[in-house]
Design a protein that fits this description.
Elements: H1 9-19, H2 28-43, H3 60-70, H4 76-104, H5 109-120, H6 123-130, H7 135-149, H8 156-170, H9 179-189, H10 196-221, H11 227-231, H12 240-272, H13 284-299, H14 313-330, H15 333-384, E1 390-393, H16 397-403, E2 406-409, H17 416-424, H18 427-432, E3 447-452, E4 462-463, E5 466-476, E6 487-496
Parallel strand pairs: 1-2, 1-3
Antiparallel strand pairs: 3-6, 4-5, 5-6
Helix pairs in contact: 1-4, 1-5, 2-3, 2-4, 2-16, 3-4, 4-5, 4-6, 4-7, 4-14, 5-14, 5-15, 7-8, 8-10, 9-13, 12-13, 12-14, 12-15, 13-14, 14-15, 15-16
């Protein structure tokens, strides 16, 4: 069994080949992690703006890992390289763990190889693994969690491993806090019921690892959860029609990468009914997990991004390929000979098409513009701003990293006060009406980085008692897959206008 890791070689080689076109890429969210890591490394504080403790990053473990890895180099850029390197390594580790999940679930050699290759081709794993985000590590921890869950209701060591994996995963992505309630819910459906000691073991190990961080976060930062949770949530969704509409987005994202796995599970349910693989006790947690997380996103009205769903992708992929194995055993003749290879070819074709047409062009363009055009704007600001100047912006990671200015986050990710403002007004209203001038704790705002399809829209205007003067402008070819088209990034100097 221990030697079966060799079966992952084709998948790892495929993943490497797919990630290479995006090498060197990075994101603004990645710079937010880097900014926190730099302040942790150089100042010993968990902050975005130096001297201002805040909880504006979803991944404290990622921040700490970057700080540790880059500390020997004493160089800010080393943090970027650390993020890129760790993200790539985590993507490869996720593939190895997915293979391990399949083996634990009883996959044959063919199923394990084909399933691993299909997972390595997952377009969203490739994208986010290559762009230096914590998403690939989160996917890896989700796979570790699913692997441990296979025996976590019958074996205390497996239960301890599950609790530990869920806890570490929760420090990478806060959504994984939901894993423990799902584990407990799955325990209630098991027959025979798991021993109480086994279930408690999982809870204890989870609490032992997460508890110290939660205590530190509440004491040092003032909050158990990051500000991003509130900033990205639109409130609870209770309208059934709206709920159904919002559920379409996560379904669409999953289908774009794991359509074969989803169809296989549905087919197995239709053919095998109660004997379908996904209804078995070993897959019980994974089944509930891949249903519960998307539902939680929709109920909380969180805008679902492809990287968020990497937390359920290992469960979906494993369930799909084990369902294919179940259907393969139930078939005969020619169908039995072609079902697995045909499924793999379809999975590769779907992901290859999405990758080539949807992912590569905007991802490469934005990464290049971020590290050249947007970084150039921030460096210009660094050279022309005075100590203590404040710049307001929506994209804040690169700006803080390169400019050194105090940043007023208009998205509410770092600054809770702007989060309250976002709950009352649309982003466009906040910018166009100058409502950010009234944010507590920011007695003056000296610059604004406006991000719009229209250039120079505020130049020479007076808004909310302040005059705007354009001093720098650059362009960005897109803001990712969901925001296509050219955007103008215009830097304005802001000066108060005395009342007549």
């Amino acid at each position: 069994m221990s030697r079966r890791w060799v079966e992952t070689v084709p998948a790892l080689l495929l993943l490497l080949a797919l990630m290479l076109p995006l090498r060197g890429g990075f994101t603004d969210d990645g710079f937010i992690h880097v900014q926190y890591a730099r302040n942790l490394m150089t100042r010993g504080e968990y902050s975005f703006n130096p001297g201002e403790t805040s909880f504006g990053t979803t991944s404290p473990l990622w921040v700490m890992a970057l700080a540790v890895l880059a500390r020997p180099f004493s160089d800010g850029h080393a943090l970027v390289v650390a993020g890129q390197t760790l993200s790539w390594l985590a993507a490869f580790a996720a593939v190895i763990m997915l293979h391990r999940v399949l083996v634990l679930l009883g996959a044959t050699r063919r199923t394990a190889i084909f399933g691993s290759v299909a997972f390595a081709a997952d377009v969203w794993l490739v994208r986010w693994g290559a762009l230096g985000m914590e998403s690939s590590l989160a996917a890896c921890m989700a796979a570790v969690m699913v692997a441990a869950s296979v025996r976590a209701y019958e074996d205390r060591r497996a239960a301890a491993a599950f609790g530990a994996a869920a806890a570490v995963g929760a420090l990478v992505r806060p959504e994984l806090y939901l894993a423990l309630p799902v584990y407990l819910a799955a325990a209630l459906t098991q027959r025979p019921r798991p021993r109480t000691r086994t279930v408690i073991t999982a809870c204890v190990f989870f609490a032992l690892l997460v508890g110290p961080w939660l205590a530190f976060a509440k004491w040092h930062i003032g909050s158990f959860l990051p500000n991003t949770a509130g900033a990205k949530s639109g409130g609870l969704v209770s309208d059934p029609v709206l709920f159904a509409k919002k559920l379409w987005m996560p379904a669409r994202i999953m289908a774009s990468s794991q359509a074969v796995a989803l169809v296989a599970m549905l087919a197995d349910l239709v053919v095998m009914r109660r004997n379908a693989f996904v209804l078995g006790p070993r897959f019980r947690f994974a089944l509930l997990w891949m249903v519960a997380l998307p539902l939680a996103y929709v109920i909380a009205d969180i805008q679902v991004l492809s990287r968020y769903l990497l937390l359920i992708t290992p469960a979906v992929c494993a369930g799909g390929w084990m369902s294919l194995q179940s259907l393969w055993h139930a078939s005969s003749g020619r169908a039995r000979a072609v079902v697995m290879p045909a499924a793999l070819l379809v999975a590769l074709a779907i992901n290859g098409t999405v990758y080539a047409l949807v992912v590569i062009p905007p991802s490469r363009a934005f990464s290049q513009d971020l590290q050249v055009n947007m970084a150039g704007l921030a460096r210009f600001l660094h050279d022309h701003a005075q100590p203590g100047d404040v710049v307001a912006a929506a994209d804040i990671g690169y700006l803080a990293f390169y400019s050194g200015c105090r940043v007023l986050d208009l998205g509410g990710l770092v600054e809770p006060e702007t989060g309250k403002l976002r709950a009352q007004y649309d982003y466009e209203d906040i910018v166009a009406q100058g409502l950010y001038f009234n944010v507590p704790g920011y007695p003056h705002v000296d610059f604004l980085v406006d991000r719009e399809h229209e250039a120079n829209r505020f130049d020479g205007r007076v808004i909310n008692g302040h005059r705007f003067e354009k001093i720098y402008m650059t362009t960005v070819r897109n803001l990712g897959i969901r925001k296509p088209g050219e955007f103008y990034y215009t830097l304005y100097r802001i000066t108060p206008v005395e009342a007549p």
